[in-house]
Design brief:
This protein is of the alpha+beta class and 86 residues long. It has 3 helices and 4 strands. The longest helix has 12 residues. The protein is elongated.
């Protein structure tokens, strides 16, 4: 059995208005087999996109703890599919 893939999406205002709202629909863009492996959660703002010492481009998401900046459905899909085959 394949391991669960944890996906977290920032729900902070910056990330949400920069496209993060659509990231919550990621399961609809995956095959059923891969979508079943996903644990999808919304996260409070991490502050990473407006802390000048570690500025990342919103929207932010995390896959198994690894931050994805400037996240999009396509970026997340690519990362999730790659991890599902490991």
């Amino acid at each position: 059995m394949k391991k669960e893939i944890e996906v977290k999406v920032c729900c902070g205002t910056n990330c949400y208005i920069m496209g993060g709202s659509e990231l919550h629909l990621i399961k609809e863009h995956l095959t059923e087999e891969i979508a079943q492996l996903i644990s999808l959660k919304g996260e409070n703002c991490s502050g990473n996109c407006h802390d000048f010492s570690r500025t990342q481009k919103p929207p932010l998401a995390w896959i198994n703890g690894e931050m994805i900046e400037n996240a999009s459905i396509e970026k997340l899909k690519k990362e999730i599919v790659a991890r599902s085959h490991k």
